[in-house]
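Section 4.2 – Deliverable D4.2 (structural model, holo form)

The reporting period included a commitment to supply a predicted holo structure for the target in complex with inosinic acid. Inputs used:
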Amino acid sequence: MAKKRAESSSKTRPGLRPGESVRVLITDSRLQQRVKQLAKEIRRDFPTEPLHLISVLKGAVFFLTDLARQLGGEVSFDFLSVSSYGRGTESTGEVKLIKDLDVSIEGKTVIVVEDILDTGLTLKYLLRFFEEKKPKHLRVVVLLDKAERRIADVRADYTGFVIPNEFVVGYGLDFDERYRNLPDVCVVHFASRGKAKSA
Ligand code: IMP
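Output (structure tokens):
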């Protein structure tokens, strides 16, 4: 019995460090429901097309794998890795490619699967990068949208949740590489220092 209690609590124990606290913003089950709906919306637009999903490592990995399993039909995926130049919470829009795509996207129906849209500068860079490679269709699905933070003139074709301007972690999103394994999307608070951001 004691063992069972320890096992059930370990999933939600967030691995907090001193001065940090988290508050659930979107529960695991709401995330799963919305991912299912997003998959339906995408398949409504592309009922029979093979879909090629592309994510930027690593924040959108859980979202991509859940979405892929809800889409049905022919689905493939690929990943790239970028680093944003910027300090603290601000991204400058300058993006350096760390890992390129493995396969060509020419002529494919590409769905860019993004974890969170903040200023939009990263997505703007990525869309230009992908468009040059001549996909048949190029669409964007984003799980979380901090709409009020937008600087770049970009929008997602499919949006999971519009959220307030707070730093969130969990379901793949990190602070300093931590908290990605939280099942819920949570707001993280720091007692003694500001917010931070990493890809
Ligand atoms: P943008 O270029 O400002 O839109 O930044 C987008 C990227 O910043 C996302 O793909 C995330 O990697 C990161 N990011 C922005 N806001 C958050 C947040 O609240 N938590 C974790 N990462 C974030």
